[in-house]
Design a protein that fits this description.
single chain; Porin; 14-stranded antiparallel β-barrel; 8% helix
């Protein structure tokens, strides 16, 4: 027990210290090594449910403990094409050329445990990281003299506690209490101070943090011996406001985590070979800081409308749309003590071409991803070593600089990434 407490403390410290990214827009493509090897598919595949999966799956999982370490390599850059309008014209052009974000390698751990309460129910707990809005450009992108670099850093940690119960032998329900912590920092944005409701709480104030809470519910049903369906809904996670950035985020620093739902199936089409498919929807429109468009809000603020200033409820945001993601995974367990898996994930980019300027800070434009994974039994029965690799293909969005239209200047934001995750379950 003493060693377990030390392990949890070490994992929590690592989770708090990492800068994390995502490729389903704001969310990770998958959680836990098994699920990540399926490109996040498997809402009806209970074997990958322990780390932020369908809570209903835990009733079928048995006693299980899981550790994972993700080695993450995101590559983000923006490119400005065209010379800016000369100074004094009332425009805001950017320096032309490509700029790559620094901070390209990260280590992201996760931990989970499931305990059966008899034959019909289980309680589980997991700790994991999430995020998707980190950039660190080695230049004064927006000409802020107070900072040599430009970017934002969002860090998030989640602690989930779930209860699941079987309904008969083939169906189950699950519910999760979600506790979240997040931290945010922005730098290099003071040039927008004239369009902020609170310029002192806009940029360069270090890291601000706070806690929040939400819930998740899930269903898993084996309709036949070979075919199962699953469904899950996660509520919006209500977070404490970022007071130090009340002049940046809409609603005076509000930055809740949007709700999502997932439905899917798993089908064992032959012995040891399972195909699964999921559809996931993420409701970014619930969070004004994420969904409010930059334009025309910023233009109306420039024209003197105080309700459209940065930090106000209707002020400029990142302009993200709601997102649909489609996932397909396969799992083969027919080679002695080995299992092999793979998956693809296809999503619609949440960032319109009209919103590229602010999203230099958060280029979450990834659409298509592929994954491969494997598991190997080691030692006594039930112990497994897991590997997952994920590649998110380069994706980009190009649009006009809305603050320098006379010049015809354009901005392109782009991102790709590679992940290697190692895990162990026992």
């Amino acid at each position: 027990m003493k060693n377990s407490k030390k392990l949890v403390l070490i994992m929590a410290t690592l989770l708090i210290s990492v800068q994390t990214f995502a490729t389903d827009g704001y969310f990770s493509t998958g959680y836990g090594t098994i699920n990540k090897g399926l490109a996040g598919a498997g809402i009806a595949f209970y074997q990958g449910s322990l780390i932020n999966g369908n809570p209903a799956g835990a009733a079928f999982l048995g006693n299980k403990y899981s550790l994972g370490v993700n080695l993450f390599n995101p590559n983000r850059q923006y490119t400005v094409t065209g010379n800016p309008t000369p100074p004094g014209q009332g425009t805001f052009g950017l320096m032309p050329g490509p700029v790559e974000s620094d901070s390209k390698f990260f280590v992201i751990p996760s931990i989970g445990a499931n305990w059966m309460l008899g034959e019909k129910s289980a309680i589980s707990a997991s700790l994991f990281a999430n995020g998707g809005m980190n950039t660190d450009y080695p230049t004064q992108t927006f000409y802020d003299p107070s900072s040599e670099t430009t970017g934002v850093n969002l860090m998030q940690m989640f602690g989930n506690v779930s209860y699941s119960i079987k309904l008969g032998e083939k169906h189950s329900l699950g519910a999760t209490a979600v506790l979240a912590w997040q931290s945010f920092e922005a730098k290099g944005l003071m040039s927008f101070g004239g369009f902020s409701s609170n310029p002192q709480a806009l940029s360069g104030n270090g890291a601000d943090s706070g806690f929040g809470y939400g819930f998740k519910i899930g269903y898993l049903g084996h309709l036949t011996d070979n075919f199962a369906i699953g469904a899950m809904y996660q509520s919006k996670v209500t977070m404490a406001e970022f007071d130090d950035y009340a002049g940046l985020f809409a609603e005076q620093g509000n930055f809740d985590i949007p709700s999502s739902w997932t439905v899917g199936f798993s089908w064992k089409i032959m012995e040891d070979f399972t195909v699964m498919g999921d559809v996931k929807s993420i409701m970014y429109s619930e969070v004004k800081s994420i969904a409010n468009p930059m334009m025309p809000n910023l233009y109306e603020a420039m024209m003197g409308d105080p309700t459209k200033l940065l930090g106000e409820a209707e002020g400029p945001g990142f302009g993200w749309d709601d997102m649909m993601v489609y996932k397909l995974g396969v799992n083969y367990a027919g080679v002695d003590t080995w299992e092999f898996r793979g998956g693809v994930s296809i999503g619609n980019n949440p960032i319109p071409s009209t919103e590229v300027m602010f999203n230099i800070l958060a280029p979450g434009v990834i659409e298509n991803q592929v994954s491969l994974g494997l598991s190997k039994e080691v030692g006594k029965s039930g112990n497994q070593f897991h590997v997952a690799m994920n590649y998110a293909f380069n994706s980009s969005v190009e649009g006009p600089n809305p603050l320098d239209q006379p010049s015809g200047q354009t901005i392109e934001i782009e991102m790709n990434q590679f992940e290697l995750e190692l895990g162990f379950s026992f």
